[in-house]
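Notes to self after the Tuesday call (sharing in case useful).
The group wants a holo model before anyone commits to mutagenesis around the pocket. I volunteered. Ligand is NAP. Logging inputs and output together so the record is complete.
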Amino acid sequence: MRVGIVGCTGAVGEELVKVLGERQDRLGGVTQLKLLASAKSAGKVMDAGVFGPLTVEEFSIDKVKKLDVVFLAVSGSFSLKYAHEIAKSGPVVIDNSSAFRNDPEIPLVIPEINGHTAKNAKLIANPNCTTAIAAMALWPLHQKFGIRSLIMSTYQAASGAGAEGMAELEAQTRAHVKGSAPEVSVFQYPLAFNVIPHVDSFQPNGYTREEMKVVWETRKIFGVPDMDVSCTAVRIPTLRAHAEALTIQTWAPCSVEKAKALIDEAVGVQLVDDPSSNKYPMPINATAKFDVEAGRVRQSIVFGDFGLDLFVCGDQLLRGAALNAVLIAEFLHEDKFEKPSGYKPTVLQRFMGASLSGPALWFTVGAVAATAAAATSFLTADSKPTSSSA
Ligand SMILES: NC(=O)c1ccc[n+]([C@@H]2O[C@H](COP(=O)([O-])OP(=O)(O)OC[C@H]3O[C@@H](n4cnc5c(N)ncnc54)[C@H](OP(=O)(O)O)[C@@H]3O)[C@@H](O)[C@H]2O)c1
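Result:
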């Protein structure tokens, strides 16, 4: 397979080179890898691991049209300008930017969850990194219990803002140690020794665009357009791997034991949950790992039997970008488009859920069911003489 990476010198692009190297046999063998970036990087020689040293070329449509798969890791405006044109010229395009994620015509894909939506697609969107990490841990729980609402708070690493974000945090940390003033250009304030509740631009509803991406994308990937989702996205001074506190309210009763078992069995998620030996997900352990770590699973004291709290941590440059993109290419190559079963709340659950929750909901469901059963047996008893006399 002939593969191209546009944006190969960036934070996501460099990870794409590494992931392709580690998994190259899965794509039926990568016979050609083309590295492309802006004019600034053209001519630079990059160590591409198993692919050897490769010279970076300046991007043009002509240079990618004979490839089979092209990964875009540049920017939304670049993708809007070129993605369709590249796809029309021949290759399948897997785009890491946010340009097409909300486009109803373009599949937004996490292969383990909704890979089937990528069937026959020439342009596929890779999800927002924050969303993808949470989705990996939530999907097995959603399939069993049905997630009715999700409340998320994030602790996002500097590398979420690209290679420049990482460099700025390192420079600010050095400046702080030397006692000099930190220089600020990527983030709104010094990030070193600080926490900034501002990721991406503010929207008219007071949420940031990053927070709204979690709302829009979780609904689209899970195929539940009316799921209640809210997020507070916060940048913290770690280099890599986002952490997220998740609270879910479920349609069906759930338990910590069952939730842990489901996470443990799920592909792409690792259960790290042993408070007695201080084991829980953390960025330093999740960094450079393919699996998302999930732990601190607790029965919610707000939603009782119908809710859980958990903490997840995942390398956003991998599961939230490079790894997920390569997994999409592998998924297309394997050509197995099975649709996974998702939880469907019953009409009664939805109806009652609008005004009731927890034990009250189940008491009411029981009462309605008992009334229906009594009415049925009354009607059946009443109708017997008529039918037997016919
Ligand atoms: N960082 C993350 O955690 C993350 C996660 C998920 C998705 N994403 C998305 O992935 C994309 C890349 O993010 P990043 O963090 O890797 O950014 P980055 O570190 O800033 O890298 C940007 C890359 O784009 C290249 N580029 C810029 N202008 C170009 C042009 N006109 N033609 C060709 N290449 C050009 C740059 O090449 P030069 O070096 O030549 O300038 C560089 O390789 C963005 O859309 C971002 O939103 C990022």
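Two things stood out.
The chain has three domains: 2-99, 130-316, 347-378.
The CA atoms of residues 29 and 112 lie 22 Å apart.
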